[in-house]
Amino acid sequence: MKRLMLKSKLHMARVTDKNLEYEGSIEIDENLMKAVDLKEFEQVLVVDIENANRFETYVIKGKAGSGIIALNGAAARLVEKGDRIIIMAFGLFDDDEYKSPKIAILNERNEIVQMK
Questions:
Q1: 25 is an active site residue
Q2: Which one, 18, 40, 53, 96, has the greatest CB density within 10 A?
Q3: What domains sit in the chain, N to C, each tagged with a CATH number?
């Protein structure tokens, strides 16, 4: 049996920018993407800690080392710059193939302070 399990998580990311005039998505620093195994165009669930909004979008690659976490398009209406968010991706796994998710805890500059 396949189970839908947490695969990747960026915890306490800070929104650095938002742009309504864009076709959509969340732009994430490429280094952060690599740290938790997120791929460009992968679907993610985003939770805003400040206002409890939850929404799905897809990832686009941001400049490595920039710390960018930018919401684009309609999703930009659901967050404010500086909001703390959680970004999660899930995968389908057999019981014997699932080990654990890659989780990065971030500081206020979107730098990784801990990997779980």
A1: yes
A2: 18
A3: 3-115 (2.40.40.20)
CA distances to 64, 85, 109 from 99, in Å: 27, 25, 29
* 100 catalytic per annotation: no
| pLDDT digits 0-9 by tens, 18-75 | 999 987 799 999 999 999 999 999 999 999 999 999 999 999 999 999 999 999 999 9
Residue 75 labelled as part of a binding site: yes
Sign of the torsion formed by the C-alpha atoms of 69, 33, 45 and 101: negative
Q: Which of 8, 22, 58, 100 is catalytic?
A: 58
Q: Which of 25, 66, 98, 100 is catalytic?
A: 25
How many residues make up the chain in this entry? 116
Residue 74 is assigned to a ligand binding site: yes
Helix (H, G, I), strand (E, B) or coil at 44: strand
